[in-house]
Amino acid sequence: MTVFIKGGQRWGEVTVPASKSQAHRALILSALGKTPVELYCRGLSRDIKATVDCLNSLGARITADGDKISVIPLPRPFLGGGRVSLSCAESGSTLRFLLPVAGMLGVNAEFLPKGRLYERPISPLDGVLSEHGAEAVREDGRIRLSGRLRPGDYRISGEVSSQYISGLLMALPFMDGDSSLEITGKTESAGYIRMTEDMLRLCGIAFEKSGRRYFIPGGQTSRPESGMAIEGDYSSASFFLCMGALSDRGITVRGLLKDSSQGDRQLLEILKEFGAEVEIKEDGAVAVRKRELRGITLDAGQIPDIIPPIAALSSVACGRTVIKNASRLRIKESDRLSTTAGLLSSLGARIQELDDGLIIDGVKSLAGGTASSCGDHRIAMTAALASLACDGGITLLGAEDVNKSYPEFWRDFSGLSEG
Fold it and tell me: Pathway of this protein (predicted)?
């Protein structure tokens, strides 16, 4: 789908969809419970639907009616056996969370990824699974899992993806014995591990944490509270929050939790560092307004998903912005360092792509032009954000790619006032 985005400022209010990161976790732990529950989740993205589809294939019965999701858990006991096809689409969270969960269940699973997901890493998770009884093998565009995980002492590096750790934390409590999990190396996106810990506690799952080591009793039961509302998504909100920093009249984003454990909440402090006016209201709503923006130096290690909108904002900030430690962006839905640089450069930004980052020298305004999403939802939304800094419009190819994480994005964007 091709859309034309008029250049120039916008202002107003928007309510963002539910956090897909939290939704994945809530759905999985609800499906592993014993009692049917209802969850409330604003906006069902393709990624969330992928997790729902996979859990249904494993034996749960999950249905959606508007924002209400009804979950009937997997049958007990978890018998395993047989072969199950799990269509995880392009959702890295679905794949990386359910590899250990399916291993715990003893399911012979065939994961069916789409897009670039098959090329994205599952190491060292696959090695850890193999050491404990479940074998994950890539073959012919699929990932085949066999065997059953055993309780024991697990050890995994946090340097590639925190999703490996979260997946193990959601699987180990349901083993028939106690386990430990030790994290080694630098931990990327550590905030999302804290989100997993919070969700485990909400579901009554016990664990002890000492430094970087967890002790996890086996034989537990997940007891999520029915009626749980999934909080708003800071990753999706990042585009509108950055738009606010380019808007004289400002933009207010609603639906966010004031004390959220989402790592991308760090954007609020980053916007202040740029010089934007940021007001956090008691109900969690965040209002952002344009002030004189200045370039900053930023480590992307804990916040890779919000680097594209930050780069767009940097393109019209005074001075130079340096984004470093961002090599993980190369293994997303696109090579996001390359596609972010390509998008902004095509619109008139002065941007240099490095092996593990970006250097951006701010200009007064962008020109506009023709751009492609490159099959990446975050690049499509970054184009919309960049339009607020453009003298002319943007013709965007692949606008439908927002459906991966934010199906109502164009409706919400169009709902903002122009001028």
Answer: Metabolic intermediate biosynthesis; chorismate biosynthesis; chorismate from D-erythrose 4-phosphate and phosphoenolpyruvate: step 6/7
